[in-house]
Amino acid sequence: MQEKGNISIHTENIFPVIKKFLYSDNEIFLRELVSNAVDATQKIKRLSSLGQYTGELGDQTIDVAFDETAKTITISDNGIGMTAEEVKKYINQIAFSGATEFVEKFKEAKDANEIIGRFGLGFYSAFMVADQVEIQTLSYQEGAEPAKWVCDGSTSYEISEGSRTTRGTDIILHVNADGEEFLNKGRLQEILDKYAKFLPVPIRFGQRTTSEPDGEDEEGKPKYKSVEVDNIINNTAPAWTKAPAELKDEDYLAFYRELYPYSFDEPLFWIHLNVDYPFNLTGILYFPKLKENFEIQKNKIKLYSRQVFITDEVKDIVPEFLMLLHGVIDSPDIPLNVSRSFLQADSNVKKINTYITKKVADKLAELFKSDRKGFEEKWKDIGLFVKYGMLSDDKFAEKAADFCLLKNTEGEVYTLAEYAAKVKDIQQDKAGNVIYLYTNDAAQQDSYVTTARERGYDVLVLDSPIDSHFIGYLEQKTEKTQLKRVDADVIDKLIEKEESKKLELTEEESKKATELFEKAISRENMKVHVEALSESELPVTVTIDEFMRRMKDMAQTGGGMSFYGSMPDNYKVTVNGNHPLIKRIVAVDDEAEQAQLAKQAFDLALLSKGLLTGSDLTNFVKRSVSLIG
Ligand code: ADP
Ligand code: MG
Questions:
Q1: Which fold has domain 501-629?
Q2: Model's pTM, two decimal places?
């Protein structure tokens, strides 16, 4: 039996086109060939379980081997095999909807996956790294003859009698210059780790000295000389494929380490996903301990299709805010050769998206309900994520409103509703608005926090990177509520009550005070206001407007208008006209002494704002020493 023919596509030089185009992604040839071997193995198992194949199943292990001297990579399975007719049907007639369409489309295609997926080119990806590809195969069907197929990457092929004596298929790649890098143990191991780590059929990997079989074993299978003992490289039953009831916490944690061997932190908790309607999806999502810079933690979720790794760019499948999670999603409804444009168009993807969001919200709600204390302890890590979710997804926000927590400077934790009830009366201003006070740095803003606390007000700690955005959101969603940072103004102005204080300075004295402090300050971006505050307030307070500061903060964390980021800080210097010290300074006779006292009072205000630095700080220290003296 020998037959020559042409692969039925109409464009002569399709392979050079494929090769050239796919070059950047060429490692996926191994994923394609190994997953074909897995398919073939699972098909025979299925036929056997259906009673349509009654022979021995035998060892199901798939072998991946390479030979540096012979320059070959061989993928062997004991699967279903093919008859010569089937080779012609499945291999020769490339599942093109038409070569013309291909050539037209490939120009716009963004990645190799798009082409391979759209045009059913899985097997042909072998030509990205091989000049010649050989198939040795023997079908499971009774009386089948072994077949051999050879193709050198042109459109002509040759089919002849094969040499396989047992059921299954060998794909032998004669690696070309473009594929040289793959004749390397480390490189192949790396690719197998990436794509085959959780395949459902055992994969053995090793190096051979010769690609020709070196005799036969007892079962009549070809025996190769191996350089070293081969190892099974995959876990055929990863945690996500098991029922949640079968798994203990240790199993989930062990699987996390299997997924991320280089991660030192343990996840906080996890969600086992399992749906079969209206789409199929399994997986485990882990909540990691979030780092300050959470951007770098994205792209940690791995997408699988029937245990074949596809990608860790899950951008379109998982809602943006859930990209902070780690773990695995496996859906056979997502084809192996998944591409950006496919994902965007696919309606399943949208459903998956909604489902995952709901599951995550439900899990958090359940954790909060069943163990509020534990939930509060983890809030530091979960909080960032929940807030991010609330900002970016309305559906999630609706559910999260019940378990989103606020923490105050005393370390007490409240839900949004609890907090609203707590401060409703005491922190209501004369216009009927409730003012939430917050600090983003309790240590640095201590004097402001203390002043507010002494007034009987509560101060929230909102110090995570997301909070500058979350503050605006909270304000928007909570009726008649405003958020103000404790150092945004003096306390009497932060929450303005009905009775306004009377200024105890005369108009003359007040003017004098303004002049004095303007001189003492001599900074462009600071404006002096003499105001009637309570005696218990500091004599001089430096504050920065809430709105301006918020815009700047948002510009810094990449939201809002970047225009604000470059604005100078404008400060308000409030001189408390009712404070005994101010009254005293205004009354001092000696001009030099008066100026010195004003400077000292102003520097104290700067000091508590953390703004006293450089020569100003040195001069302040010197002046203080002489004043004490
Ligand atoms: P797909 O896997 O998407 O069908 P491929 O180009 O990867 O496309 O493979 C084409 C066909 O060739 C497969 O559907 C299968 O029928 C056949 N085939 C490929 N590899 C094997 C194998 N190792 N054993 C049996 N059949 C195979
Ligand atoms: Mg395939």
A1: Four Helix Bundle (Hemerythrin (Met), subunit A) (1.20.120)
A2: 0.76
